[in-house]
Structure to design on (257 residues):
């Protein structure tokens, strides 16, 4: 970790915030935040939001990590598709969705006696390019990993050293990000996307996205998955053709989000 980017040590952060509610997605960032919260805070609970935007495997990962760390996992259901602005899918959709999601987390945490809510935003995240982070700031949510200078590589290292099973899990943005801006989001479209991505998981792909292009799909792959797509091209096309008329491959390597 580069000491020049540290505004505060993580130990000192938790001296100021002794009881914390952690917004927990099941990914590596929030898993490490949960681990550090348990180590340094006096009291911590995790809050997972179930919505149409979250795939089932994220929920299962959250359950597994919370059980492993022996931390209570509070599950909140949020109907994101009841928000007309979110459904219309404007360029800043994430802002409106995050406002709704974190309002639910903050309210639930308050009922449990927490006044401090944390999220796993880290030092590597480009907050200027993500409207969802503006919603976090407006909601008073704190991001200790970012404040204390933890970059993605630091977080993965901590996860590996502590045996967290998500240490090498690729970042996973919500299902709504697979749908082009200004295309109306429907439950059916989200479910189709989740089924298509589950097919790729089952075929052994690890770092990918299935982008919806109307009746077609574009596959974005990380470097490690390019050899696999050519090895399993025919089977991939056959299985995804249940959902899409055409399947395209983006030849650019997918960056970790």
């Amino acid at each position: 970790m580069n000491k020049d980017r540290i505004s505060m040590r993580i130990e000192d952060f938790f001296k100021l915030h002794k009881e914390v509610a952690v917004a927990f997605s099941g990914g590596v960032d929030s898993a490490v935040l949960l681990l550090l919260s348990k180590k340094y805070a006096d009291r911590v609970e995790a809050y997972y939001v179930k919505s149409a935007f979250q795939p089932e495997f994220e929920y299962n990962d959250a359950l597994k990590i919370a059980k492993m760390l022996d931390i209570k996992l509070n599950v909140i259901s949020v109907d994101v598709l009841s928000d007309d602005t979110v459904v219309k899918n404007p360029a800043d959709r994430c802002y409106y969705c995050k406002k709704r999601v974190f309002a639910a987390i903050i309210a639930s945490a308050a009922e449990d006696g927490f006044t401090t809510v944390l999220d796993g935003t880290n030092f590597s995240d480009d907050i200027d390019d993500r409207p969802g982070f503006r919603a976090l700031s407006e909601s008073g949510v704190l991001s200790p990993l970012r404040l204390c200078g933890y970059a993605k590589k630091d977080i993965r290292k901590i996860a590996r050293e502590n045996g967290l099973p998500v240490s090498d899990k690729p970042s996973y943005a919500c299902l709504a990000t697979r749908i082009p801006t200004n295309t109306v989001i429907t439950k059916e479209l989200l479910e189709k996307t989740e089924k298509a991505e589950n097919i790729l998981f089952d075929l052994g792909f690890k770092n990918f996205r299935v982008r919806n292009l109307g009746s077609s799909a574009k596959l974005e792959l990380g470097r490690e998955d390019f050899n696999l797509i050519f090895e399993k091209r025919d089977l991939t096309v056959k299985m995804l053709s249940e959902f899409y008329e055409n399947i395209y491959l983006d030849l650019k390597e997918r960056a970790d989000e």
In short: The CA atoms of residues 160 and 167 lie 5 Å apart. The longest helix spans residues 93-111. The two ends are 20 Å apart (CA to CA).
